[in-house]
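Reminder to self: tokens first, then the designed residues, so the page reads top to bottom the way the pipeline ran.
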């Protein structure tokens, strides 16, 4: 009798195992294989993961652990160093590319590749981020990036950035309790962007509220886009809604001032320029576009010939630039902090892309480098850092950071 039960349980477990791992596990792969029908070239190697969620959980797990390269390394060990793999991420069938040539090709070939962000990112940052036509994108980009590109444009902000950095360093050094340095640094970059966008006229409490809401919205940029109570994405959508309300009020105020001729003193800030600008048909930008642009600036400030395989139309292509920057072929011991590695280093084309390439090249790169230089200048000369948890693990999703947000004390050196 007992033996019968044992056989019964074993058979059930074996059946369940076969169903889950040999049948259910492959449903996604079969579905896309059948859907795409006959192709001239095969799909890249890889696996499409579980039905509905694809490989999202494996991806998120590796990026939240201390070893974000494990996701791509597993693909390499299973399918070889093809540099291109099919997968299913963020609710989309996708292809990951991770060689300099292929990333460069994808980022510069406007005809075949349009920017496409995960659904969660598009919903949270606004539609103009990815869906503007190439011509519209060029026009908006020309308009919005002029104030932050090049040394001449940035010279106007240097003094203000210095003030913000010096103020913050002094504030941190006077704090008795340790604080999360990373959050503090985000506040610095956030204040710089707000200054460029709105000038120095916004109230401190409004700026602080906007900062909090941005942080809440950003927490779900790469989450599953599930809009149900309890999910991060749901909370982030609510934060975005409040944020849009606040920004729209500021825009209304500005429009009113323009109408009544109640101009403020000093240089126009970016919002004034955006509110005034008209296209060739006399059409002005809508408030919604200006809000989207602010989101883009805020979030963005915070990532060939050898394509033999088919990349089906509509699939997302994920440029895994991290995999190139971590590849020992280009950067031996990439994890090691070794500034001397750059001495006499000849960069292979496409193997160093921290700010992207092509028509989407980061317009904030000069500003970012200026902010980092000013911060390091004042910090290294006058302060030192005492971390509370030196061995704190690092998470890589949605952004790289120590899990304690670098809890630390900043101490003024006499
Ligand atoms: C160290 C800091 C930064 C890094 C590593 C960085 C990196 C990048 C990368 C890789 C892209 C290209 C994305 C793509 O190809 O789709 C990009 C785009 C962009 N970045 Fe940055 N960025 C930084 C700072 C900033 C700052 C401070 C700003 C704003 C003031 C900014 C604004 C933008 C915008 C608006 C885009 C979109 C450009 C377009 O689509 O035409 N970035 N950034």
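Designed residues (414 positions):
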């Amino acid at each position: 009798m007992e033996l019968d039960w044992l056989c019964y349980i074993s058979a059930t477990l074996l059946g369940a195992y076969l169903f889950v791992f040999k049948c259910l596990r492959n449903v996604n792969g079969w579905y896309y294989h059948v859907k795409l029908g006959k192709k001239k070239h095969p799909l890249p190697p890889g696996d499409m993961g579980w039905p509905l969620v694809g490989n999202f959980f494996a991806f998120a797990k590796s990026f939240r652990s201390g070893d974000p390269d494990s996701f791509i390394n597993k693909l390499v060990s299973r399918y070889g160093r093809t540099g291109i793999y099919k997968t299913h991420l963020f609710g989309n069938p996708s292809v990951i590319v991770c060689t300099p040539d292929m990333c460069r090709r994808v980022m510069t070939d406007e005809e075949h590749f349009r920017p496409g962000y995960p659904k969660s990112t598009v919903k949270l940052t606004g539609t103009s981020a990815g869906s503007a036509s190439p011509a519209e994108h060029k026009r908006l980009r020309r308009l919005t990036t002029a104030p932050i590109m090049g040394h001449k444009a940035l010279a106007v902000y240097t003094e203000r950035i210095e003030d913000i950095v010096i103020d913050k360093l002094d504030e941190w050094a006077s704090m008795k309790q340790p604080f999360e340095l990373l959050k503090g640094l985000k506040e610095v970059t956030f204040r710089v962007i707000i200054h460029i966008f709105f000038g120095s006229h916004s109230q401190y409490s409004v700026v602080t509220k906007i900062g909090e809401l941005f942080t809440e919205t950003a927490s779900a940029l790469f989450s599953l886009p599930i809009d149900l109570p309890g999910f991060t994405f749901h909370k982030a959508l609510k934060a975005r809604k409040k944020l849009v309300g606040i920004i729209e009020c500021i825009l209304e105020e500005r429009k009113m001032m323009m109408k009544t001729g109640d101009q403020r003193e000093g240089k126009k800030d970016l919002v004034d320029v955006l509110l005034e600008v008209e296209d060739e048909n006399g059409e002005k930008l809508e408030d919604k576009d200006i809000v989207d642009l602010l989101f883009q600036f805020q979030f963005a400030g915070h990532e060939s010939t050898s394509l033999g395989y088919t990349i089906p139309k509509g699939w997302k292509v994920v440029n895994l630039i991290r995999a190139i920057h971590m590849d020992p072929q280009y950067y031996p011991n990439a994890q090691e902090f070794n500034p001397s590695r750059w001495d006499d280093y000849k960069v292979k084309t496409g193997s160093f892309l921290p700010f992207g390439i092509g028509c989407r090249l980061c317009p904030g790169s000069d500003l970012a480098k200026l902010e980092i230089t000013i911060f390091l200048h004042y910090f290294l000369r006058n302060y030192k850092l005492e971390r509370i948890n030196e061995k704190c693990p690092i998470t890589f999703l949605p952004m790289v950071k120590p899990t304690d947000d670098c809890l630390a004390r900043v101490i003024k050196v006499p």
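The chain has two domains: 43-125+315-362, 132-301+364-414.
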